[in-house]
Amino acid sequence: MNQQSDESYDLLGVGIGPFNLSLAALADQVPGLRALFCDSRPEFRWHPGMLVDGARMQVPFLADLVSLVDPTNPWSFLNYLRAQDRLFPFYFAERFQLPRREYDHYCRWAADRLPSCRFGTEVTTARWNGEAFTVTLRTGGAERQVLARNLVLGVGTAPIRPPAFEALEGHPAVFHSGEYLERARNLAGARDITVVGSGQSGAEVFLDLLRGRAGDGTRLRWLTRTRALAPMEYSKLGLEHFTPDYTRYFHALPEAVRDRLVAEQWQLHKAASAETLAEIHDLLYEQTIGRPISAVEAEITPGTEVTAALPGPCGGLELRCLHRDSGRRRVLRTDAVVLATGYRARRPALLEPLAELIDWDPQGRFRVDLDHRVATVPELAGGLYVQNAELHTHGVGTPDLGLGAHRAAVILNALTGRTVHRLPARTAWTSFAPAALPAQSAAVPEEWNRAPSASR
Length: 456
Fold this sequence. Notes:
By secondary structure, this protein is an alpha/beta fold. Helices cover 24% and strands 22% of the residues. The strands form six sheets. Strands 1, 2, 8, 9 and 10 form a five-stranded mixed beta sheet that branches.
């Protein structure tokens, strides 16, 4: 039954992942702001399939829900440690990067206590009634409607399953790395396992399999399309691509340039950490003590694309592969495949009633302004904001946890129409765009157009 309600909110968040949880934590400290955050799941979980033993975050602990905007906020990671009586153990551990399991536990601690968070509550539809969004919520079998002046979509991303694996849809021995821990039992009888994908998830799955299957005769294989297993860029100046300064620079670029840059900058946001790659190398090194490298049942082959994946004629799976540099093709037979092939933004079904009111770009993506507000027709006066669906407009920092609190603060400032949080004017040493030439010097000197001399 659909019940009308006089519940009205200034802000309704759809989905409770780390980014909307950050917004909930910052909004909790704004007097008079009526906020509600809903998630259909029964509880908060952050990539539960990848909480493997030893896996660590790729960002420092200050990239928590609030600290890079408001370190005095009670929902900070340090306050979580205080509540857990773990401040001194953390102090002596001298860890800048947290175990993934601890970050997940910290977020669950906040999500369980924030009064605006409602789990087990699905947002099924959102409509614009001329003055506000009418939002239908389903809890159990009951539905009710609430009003909201602003919606913030934080529905997360969907796993990418390459088209080459279409024929193996639903196969129990082929699954995405996001399900790795839940589906690992399907690998128990496999004697040949292939990991596909060069990012951090692929590296962590391959490392976990190396540790768990060492010496039992299982052949492990790691295939990547990238031509090298280059580590993620982690130099101090390189990390300035994950600052608000770079976001502003990127947003001002033409759309075609932005799309090209995202593809070229894979090493900034899609590569594996140098530490994980080093652990893989160290483990392989130890396994070859006293025996030749060829004796280890492990294969790492970059520059290789799986062009088709089929059920094997005699059981198992058949992967048809292309080595992109040499052009050589080969057929690999394996028992199981873990697809560490990444994620992409998704358009939630709840937006269908609003689809004609949204100003989509030519590729069917959101147009998103610097405040993370989606462009809509003028008749839709309410604010529709997105979190982690704007890689194409805001650049490689979009999925990065280090910018989560800043983005949440930008959204809060925008939807309240005031400076709830003071944000820094500059955050990077790097000037990503050259300063414009003074008007009197705008002409290019003649010598710049001359061919360089042979002596140079």
